[in-house]
Amino acid sequence: MKTYNLALIPGDGIGVDVTDAAIEVLGAAAKDRFAFKTTTFPWSCEYYLEHGSMMPDDGVETLRGFDAIYLGAVGWPETVPDSVSLHGLLLPIRKAFNQYANIRPHRLLAGVEGPLKTEGFDILCIRENTEGEYSGAGGRVHQGKDNEVAVETSVFTRAGVERILRFGFEQARARRGLLTSVTKSNAQKYSMVFWDEVTRELAAEYPDVTVSHMHIDAMAAKMVMAPQDLDVVVASNLFGDILTDLGAAIQGGLGFAASANINPDRSAPSMFEPVHGSAPDIAGKNIANPIAAIWSVAQMLEHLGEADAAAAVLGAIETATGKGIGIRPGLNTTQEITAAVIAALEA
Ligand code: NAD
Ligand code: IPM
Ligand code: MN
């Protein structure tokens, strides 16, 4: 039986609750299939207040040897600015481990209604995860307060754009054969025109995939008006970030949206985490929906090659939601939802 070494970073707020839930479900899914060992790292805003950094200097290197990383959520803006906490932990891990494909599925689980009249949508958002608007390049120039200038530079490399689009084309090929590339090339005349060009070049290599180009503004509207027409959606780091909270909303809320930060060439561990954040407004109330976190466990199992266990976890989630468990915010506690998923796994 295989044993997986997993690094856990529960993080802040509800990140801790949903990680507990996710690992409990992982335990039930493991059963006779595989074994796993967890090492928990307390890296968080609390850790920052004590140590002056979000993780030790060798934090990333410490994670390198693990088979996968599971993260809850990071951020507690009341005590640590988000620009400090996220650039000190989550974002450097994605970058250092070349987790360039952030896979975020959006569909309605059994029993979940969502705010739209539309049903039957199944969108796979592939978000570029290591460069673009999140390059970190830029600065502020002070020449007196009235003349202050802040610059945030997006960096798009051919290698970076090509590999994320190629990843999207491969996914589209394995699904319904539709790829929507999202840009804003009518306004951003360098980076997004470049992205469109690379999309066209690659499209020639994938004649079996139908490609459409959409601007991010029109795309936001389409995701609400006709989400059933979308299949694979590829977007830059920031556009993908925004679209996937929208995707979460149409699938019933942030508590349902899973995410996998994948290093496709497996030269370093991949990281699994829900789309949502630490939710300070509901932290400590025991009402965080753990389904997004549990679905991310299924993504992790899929990546580790445990397809049966992954399918069992997804099936158990839908058995629970199909019975009405956790389908609306506040309906059930975090523990009740977790217990229902585990019961379905063990049935
Ligand atoms: P958020 O995702 O934490 O919360 C947005 C809204 O969704 C809140 O009303 C919250 O209660 C609700 N929500 C989120 N997850 C839920 C769940 N599982 N069940 C039920 N309701 C849920 O976004 P935010 O408020 O903008 O951010 C809070 C903090 O988290 C910030 O510090 C932010 O930077 C950080 N953040 C971290 C991550 C991450 O670690 N991956 C992602 C997003 C935000
Ligand atoms: C996400 C989050 C992060 C992002 C933040 C917390 C930096 O919103 O994972 O979607 O923008 O990538
Ligand atoms: Mn986000």
Automatic annotation (TrEMBL):
Cofactors that this protein relies on:
K(+); Mn(2+); Mg(2+)
Domain Isopropylmalate dehydrogenase-like stretches: 5-341
In which pathway is this protein known to take part? Carbohydrate acid metabolism; tartrate degradation; D-glycerate from L-tartrate: step 1/1; Carbohydrate acid metabolism; tartrate degradation; 2-hydroxy-3-oxosuccinate from L-tartrate: step 1/1; Carbohydrate acid metabolism; tartrate degradation; 2-hydroxy-3-oxosuccinate from meso-tartrate: step 1/1
Q: Name one GO molecular function term.
A: tartrate dehydrogenase activity
Under which EC number(s) is this enzyme classified? 1.1.1.83, 1.1.1.93, 4.1.1.73
The keyword NAD is assigned to this record: yes
Q: Which UniProt keywords apply?
A: Manganese, Metal-binding, NAD, Oxidoreductase
What is the catalytic activity of this protein? (2R,3R)-tartrate + NAD(+) = 2-hydroxy-3-oxosuccinate + NADH + H(+); (R)-malate + NAD(+) = pyruvate + CO2 + NADH; tartrate + NAD(+) = 2-hydroxy-3-oxosuccinate + NADH + H(+); (2R,3S)-tartrate + NAD(+) = 2-hydroxy-3-oxosuccinate + NADH + H(+)
Pfam assignment, any one: Iso_dh
**InterPro entries hit by this protein:** ICDH/IPMDH, IsoCit/isopropylmalate_DH_CS, IsoPropMal-DH-like_dom, TTC_DH
The reply on keyword Oxidoreductase is yes
According to the record, the signal peptide region is: none
UniProt xrefs under PROSITE patterns: IDH_IMDH
Q: What does this protein do?
A: Has multiple catalytic activities. Apart from catalyzing the oxidation of (+)-tartrate to oxaloglycolate, also converts meso-tartrate to D-glycerate and catalyzes the oxidative decarboxylation of D-malate to pyruvate.
To which protein family does this belong?
Belongs to the isocitrate and isopropylmalate dehydrogenases family.
Q: Which NCBIfam families match?
A: TTC
Name this polypeptide is given? D-malate dehydrogenase [decarboxylating]
